[in-house]
């Protein structure tokens, strides 16, 4: 996914308030993201964002997919996908658990050298909290069934799913 020009993750962090919360970090680098960097570095208003989630029920483990859209360029949003394996690491469980309860979500956008170009926060609704909680419950339930059959292998599931990604270029959609 590095060849796409952007990398994204969401992890639990402690920001100014000292409370743990999940935040989204997107590194926007490479020539593919040049226009996005210009917009991010020069905006003086919050950018529209959107996200949706799904549980990919692989035979080896559940992988939670979070699809993020940042409307940097009209008609051509910067898109990123974060893949989480809650059954493999406590940090992924915590990231989803926090998203199901925290009042807001912070987004950070960085350049090649990880300097912050732009950051914004938006409020999470009750419906969004419920959706994150549903994603976590569904992933945990799937992983429990896979573990019962002794076939659990989060790394294999993640590798298989990631193998279907294509590098971003001018003729490919803006998916990270």
Can you describe what's shown?
- The protein is α+β, with helices and mostly antiparallel strands.
- Helices cover 29% and strands 33% of the residues.
- The strands form 2 sheets. It has a 4-stranded mixed sheet with strand order 1-2-6-7, covered by helices on one side. The protein has a 3-stranded antiparallel sheet with strand order 3-4-5.
- Helix 2 (90-99) packs antiparallel against helix 3.
Our count of helices gives 4
Largest sheet: 4 strands, mixed
Going by helix content, strand content and strand pairing, the class is alpha+beta
Distance N to C terminus: 6 Å
Helix content: 25-40%
Low-confidence stretches: 170-176
As laid out across the biggest beta sheet, the strand order is 1-2-6-7
Mean pLDDT: 88
> Can you tell me the overall shape?
globular
Radius of gyration: 16 Å
Give the oligomeric state.
single chain
> What is the domain total for the residues?
1
Number of strands: 7
Report the β-strand fraction as a percent range.
25-35%
H/E topology pattern: EEHEEEHEEHH
